[in-house]
Amino acid sequence: MEATDDRLELAVDPARPTGRTLLAGGVEQSYVDLADPTYLHFEYVRRMAAVADLAAPAGDPLDVLHLGGGALTLPRYVAATRPGSAQVVVERDPAVVELVARDLPPRPAGVEIQVADAREAVVAAPAGAYDLVFADIYRAARMPPHVATVAFAAEVARVLRPDGIYLVNVTDLPPLVLTRVQAATLRAVFADVCVVADRRMLRGRRYGNVVLAAAPRPHRLPVPRLVARARRDPLPGGVLHGPVLDTFIAGARHRTDDAER
């Protein structure tokens, strides 16, 4: 998660001595297990990792762009599960980069760090460069508007390969207005879109994180296998896709750059 806050700290997990939580202003941003990069504490990170696992045959290296670096949880996971992957991490806050480099395990081989704005980094990236793009971008607990529009989604689609997948973390609360708008926004650009979250959240019963997955190619997303993975999670999840997603989005308008001016 990208974070901008002067009060940064790494807290030891009392339930897991090798676990460290990155806090910004007292708010949890990232979690890393010093001994096991495949341990994923936050449910939304597990859901993003599930899509990454299913995006290509197990162990195959991928080219990955991470928008929002935090403690490098997902870059460490991809490096451990897909050795040889080339990954670029874009983090806006140099203080986060410095803290993580100083107090957490060294970044894995193949991981490049850029201190930059996420949208500017995507616009500058070459076309067709990535198999996966992860977006976990928050400032003051809010997704910056300039990375939540159709124009930004189109830039992400440009840097993805034809079989690539875009993954977005959205923090939302009932009745999931932000999620519906972001799903409509992705639908305006991508041919295949799905929403993954805790079933209670999809029923409008709790606040939390929703993961959206989008692909340029129709029928690209591994929905049946993703449904099975979501069901097996310690916090069982559901997947909205196809006609069910149509119903979920109904009435939501996609977000444009003009609307944010």
**Spans with pLDDT under 50 lasting ≥5 residues?**
none
CATH homologous superfamily classification: Vaccinia Virus protein VP39
Structural class, by secondary structure, is alpha/beta
Choose one word for the global shape. Answer: globular
Q: Determine the strand fraction and express it as a percent band.
A: 25-35%
The string of secondary-structure elements, in order, is EEEHEHEHEHEHEHEHEHEH
CATH class: Alpha Beta
How helix-rich are the residues, as a percent range?
Answer: 25-40%
CATH topology: Rossmann fold
How many structural domains in the coordinates? 1
For the record, the CATH architecture stands as: 3-Layer(aba) Sandwich
Round the mean pLDDT to the nearest integer and report it.
94
Based on CA atoms alone, the radius of gyration comes out at 17 Å
The tally of helices reads 9
Order of strands in the sheet with most strands:
6-5-4-7-8-10-9-11
